[in-house]
Design goal:
It is a single chain. The protein is α/β, with parallel strands linked by helices and 220 residues long. The chain folds into 3 domains: 113 residues, NAD(P)-binding Rossmann-like Domain (Rossmann fold, 3-Layer(aba) Sandwich); 32 residues, no CATH class; 67 residues. It is built from 9 helices and 7 strands, in the order βαβαββαβββαααααα. The strands form 2 sheets. Strands 3-2-1-4-5 form a 5-stranded parallel β-sheet, sandwiched between helices. β2, α2 and β3 form a beta-alpha-beta unit. α5 crosses α7. The longest helix has 18 residues. The protein is elongated, with a radius of gyration of 22 Å. 23% of the residues are buried.
Length: 220
């Protein structure tokens, strides 16, 4: 296995995207969704990037890339159509020990970006190790049908239950059999069906009084 699977916490980390076209814009969108502080360097930029800059969401430098742009960065993405520049970014990032991804050039990356299914706190990452992005996309579309929005609700509920149990000084290991029962009793399907009555009956049976769906996640 060439790649070490890992999920990075980039919240409030300084990240750089070089390239302001459609690819760069997609990279910026994902970084922002993960809470990163994003700077974009590009002579040309999409209207979306200009809007994000005007609203103060990102910093946009409409000029050529400079080596100093890498100063203080945690992660850098090269997304230009100039391959010489992309490899220059890669080489300098490597020299500095930075995380670096060059779009569509796996050999010039020290990490690659998977295809993602995002259902709230459920993140499913799919990678073909750069061998077939088209197949990764096909798998993503398949999994998006298999894992719907009910999984967002499910994890919100499980997280609320876990927190309440921890607040009552329960040991985490003591929760294991409770969560296994909730999972095995098809709680996900109940949430998909909006079956509040049976959900509350299951919560009462497994957890006891005080674990009603409406109080655990009021905005469901």
């Amino acid at each position: 296995m060439r790649y070490y699977p890992v999920y990075l916490d980039i919240k409030d980390r300084d990240c750089l995207v070089v390239g302001g076209g459609s690819v760069g814009t997609r990279k910026v969108k994902t970084l922002l969704e993960c809470g990163a502080k994003v700077t974009v360097v590009s002579i040309d930029a999409t209207e979306k990037l200009k809007e994000l800059s005007d609203s103060g969401v990102i910093q946009l430098k409409e000029r050529d890339f400079q080596i100093a742009d890498l100063d203080g960065r945690f992660l850098v993405i090269g997304a230009t159509d100039n391959q010489e520049l992309n490899f220059k970014i890669h080489a300098e990032a490597e020299r500095r020990g930075l995380l670096c991804n060059i779009a569509d050039r796996p050999k010039a990356c020290n990490f690659i970006l998977p295809s993602i299914v995002n259902r709230g706190d459920l993140i499913i990452a799919i990678s073909t190790s750069g061998k077939s992005p088209a197949f990764a996309k096909k798998l993503r579309k398949h999994l998006e049908k298999e894992f719907g929005d009910e999984y967002t609700k499910f994890l919100n509920l499980m997280g609320a239950i876990r927190q309440k149990l921890l607040n009552q000084d329960h040991e985490p290991e003591a929760h294991k059999h409770l969560f296994e029962q909730l999972i095995e009793r098809d709680l996900v399907q109940m949430l998909k069906n909006g079956d509040t009555e049976n959900i509350n009956s299951l919560l009462l049976e497994v957890l006891g009084e005080g674990y009603e769906l409406e109080t655990l996640i009021p905005n469901i």
